[in-house]
Write a structure and sequence with these properties.
heterodimer, A: alpha/beta, 6-stranded parallel β-sheet, 9 helices, globular, B: mainly alpha, about 0% strand, extended
């Protein structure tokens, strides 16, 4: 058991060291990532939000912060921080919906900080909302926001279940752009079918790096790639050793 | 960073490191600290529900005050909230509270679930219009094969080999793909956690750097 703990600590420590080292290097030479059309389209949609005075809606899902699913919500908050910054010149601040109370408080805090950082100083506490605590009440509460608040861009990022299908449908009916990402597998299948720009798997966690949220985001993406290739080599090595009868 | 920002960041980083260390090392003190910190987080999250409720109330009061579209629904929501809250004070498992849940909440959520089935069928058709490529065709064909292998057709019964094909898709191809995706999500979770430990992402105090 102690060995397992030490191995886990080793992986975390190595990842942390790599992230720190790479983020230092990334400050000098920005990295190039493979093209993900969803992020190119998101940047264009953000440009339209600023130009035509419409509104950006970010929905952060319903991950409780004390559960492992909170990582997707935290990645969503990092993206929200950057998007709030990018839309600071817009007439209307972004509107944020979530299905967990603590997440709603953090989104309020993020919007408030972005508002102060942009020098606007005007912060609307009702711009970040808790719309419901059960999956479908959350979706039912978020749908009128998409329909009635002049929203032209919807970013659904976080832990969603099947209810995400209702949100993408509402976005389609409002002729709005939607970028969707969930860490939940059934939701990913639903979003692939119903979302305009679905992100699959770990692409959710790449959002920060693609919207230039900082060198640490770019470094964490590189570390993910290094770890992924390590796992691929370990799996292939395991298969080979099994075939040879060593293990 | 101002002092106002340094304190929460330092506290968050210290708490994060202590909880993480409590998971990796079987040291009694670390384990106790981890459980205490997680216990505190649960209490704060419970209080956040109350704050969220106040936020919900503010949003709908504003809608009514500014006579926005759908203000009638806001009125109904506030009335329902007050009535349920007052009845809820008698206890969370009284027959009246159960009646409210079983007669209002449950049927409404079930009807939304039914609506979702129709929405997804439409989304499946729309997918081909939106992205007409090999992946989309494969996605829809797989969904159709799995549906056919799950339930018998009226008058025809089960299509031969459809059950076997469904289990091959679900238990071999889908399970393999799902594990790959879950590994990617796990790596993303790790790096997101580390960014927060480093204070690069500060969802608790904004202004990330």
């Amino acid at each position: 058991m102690m060995w397992l703990g030490l191995a886990g600590f080793g992986v975390v420590f190595l990842s942390a060291a790599l992230m720190l080292g790479l983020s230092f290097l990334r400050r000098k030479s920005p990295p190039t990532f493979r093209d993900i059309p969803a992020f190119t389209h998101l940047k264009q949609a953000i440009g339209r939000v600023v130009e035509d005075g419409s509104r950006l809606h970010v929905s952060l899902g319903r991950a409780a912060l004390t559960t492992p699913q909170s990582a997707s919500a935290l990645a969503g908050l990092a993206l929200l921080n950057r998007l709030a910054d990018l839309t600071s010149a817009s007439d209307k601040p972004p509107v944020v919906t979530s299905g967990d109370a603590a997440l709603a408080l953090l989104s309020q805090d993020t919007l408030q900080s972005a508002s102060h950082a942009s020098g606007q100083g005007v912060y609307d506490p009702t711009a970040a909302r808790l719309t419901g605590l059960t999956p479908f009440s959350y979706a039912a509460g978020a749908m009128p926001v998409i329909h009635d608040e002049n929203v032209s861009t919807n970013v659904l990022i976080g832990n969603f279940g099947m209810e995400a299908g209702l949100l993408t449908e509402a976005s389609d009916r409002a002729n709005a752009f939607s970028l969707t990402a969930s860490d939940n597998l059934p939701a990913q299948a639903i979003l692939y079918a119903s979302g305009q720009e679905p992100l699959i798997g770990e692409e959710l966690f790449a959002a920060g790096a693609y919207v230039e949220a900082g060198p640490m985001h770019a470094a964490s993406l590189t570390v993910q790639d290094i770890l992924r290739w390590t796992i691929v080599v370990a799996i292939l090595g395991g298969i080979l050793l099994k075939l040879l009868g060593v293990i | 960073m101002k002092l106002r920002g340094i304190l929460p960041t330092a506290l968050a980083i210290a708490s994060g490191i202590l909880v993480l260390a409590g998971y990796f090392f079987a040291i009694d003190v670390l384990g106790e600290i981890r459980l205490t910190l997680i216990g505190w987080a649960v209490i704060v999250a419970a209080f956040a529900v109350f704050a969220g409720l106040v936020n919900l109330l503010m949003v709908h009061v504003n809608k009514i005050r500014q006579r926005e579209k759908g203000m009638a629904y806001s009125l109904i929501l506030i009335a329902a909230l007050i009535v349920t809250f007052l009845i809820g004070l008698t206890g969370p498992e009284t027959p009246t509270v159960s009646f409210i849940f079983n007669s209002f909440q449950l049927p409404v959520e079930t009807s939304l679930m039914a609506l979702l089935a129709v929405t997804l069928a439409v989304a499946g058709i729309r997918l081909l219009r939106r992205h007409l490529n090999l992946l989309s065709i494969l996605f829809l064909a797989t969904a159709l094969v799995v549906l056919l292998g799950t339930a018998p057709l009226p008058y025809l019964g089960m299509i031969p080999y459809s059950d076997w094909l469904r289990s091959q898709i679900a238990q071999v191809l889908a399970a393999g793909g799902a594990r790959g995706i879950l590994l990617g999500v796990a790596l993303g979770t790790l790096t997101t956690g580390l960014r927060i430990l480093f204070g690069a992402d500060r969802p608790y105090g904004g202004d990330n750097g």
